[in-house]
Task: inverse folding
């Protein structure tokens, strides 16, 4: 495989957009859990109403359904606050990087993925990554040990056919 070089100039809006996409990807699993919690609260509320119609004394289903509904509301409010803090932090980082002219460079070989910018430089062997995915116009590499997002490449600007073929040959595809 020939060496692939990607040089990208820092763009504040692209940086913020990529981190919004990263946030959405991190929430995919949490959204599934939240949907299950909403369904459970609805089921318990309906059970409570059915039991209440039969005029039985003591109805724990309504209480459980109400508590689960309150938990859903608290989780949604918490998510809203955390997202706003996250976006504010990302905007601050983007402004700092814009002042530093944080251009980055990737060099991709058959053995390594190298990253360099104004502050740091990394070399990763391909064995560090386990899977890849394509999500909303980004090629995403996931770390093997944690399953966390490693690198994101904008398909329109940074992903060539050679890079995509190289990633496909080294990693397995992960459906999100």
Result:
């Amino acid at each position: 495989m020939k060496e692939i070089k990607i040089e990208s100039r820092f763009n504040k809006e692209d940086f913020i957009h990529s981190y919004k996409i990263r946030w959405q990807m991190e929430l995919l699993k949490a959204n599934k859990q939240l949907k299950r919690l909403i369904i459970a609260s609805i089921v318990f509320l309906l059970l409570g109403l059915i039991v209440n119609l039969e005029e039985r004394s003591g109805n724990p289903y309504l209480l459980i359904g109400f508590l689960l509904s309150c938990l859903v509301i608290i989780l949604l409010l918490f998510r809203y606050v955390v997202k706003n803090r996250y976006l504010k932090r990302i905007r601050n980082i983007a402004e700092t990087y814009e002042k530093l002219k944080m251009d980055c460079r990737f060099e991709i070989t058959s053995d390594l993925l190298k990253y360099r910018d104004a502050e740091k430089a990394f070399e990763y062997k391909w064995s560090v990554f386990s899977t890849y995915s394509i999500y909303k116009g980004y090629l995403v590499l996931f770390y093997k040990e944690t399953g966390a997002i490693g690198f994101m490449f904008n398909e329109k600007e940074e992903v060539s056919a050679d890079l995509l073929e190289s990633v496909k040959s080294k990693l397995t595809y992960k459906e999100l």
